[in-house]
Amino acid sequence: MLNSPRTTTTSAPGTGPGTGRSAGPDQGRPAQRRVPVAVSAADPISREGAVSQLRRHPEVELREESGPGTVSLFVEDTLDEAALTRLRRVVRGEGVRAVLVVGSMRESELLDVVECGVGTIVWRHEATAERLVRAVLAASRGDGDLPADLLGRLVHQVGTLHRGAAGRSGTPAFGLTSREVDVLRLVSEGFDTGEIAGKLSYSERTVKNVMHGLTTRLHLRNRAHAVAFALREGYI
Question: What's the rounded Cα separation, in Å, for the pair 36 and 60?
Answer without folding.
Answer: 6
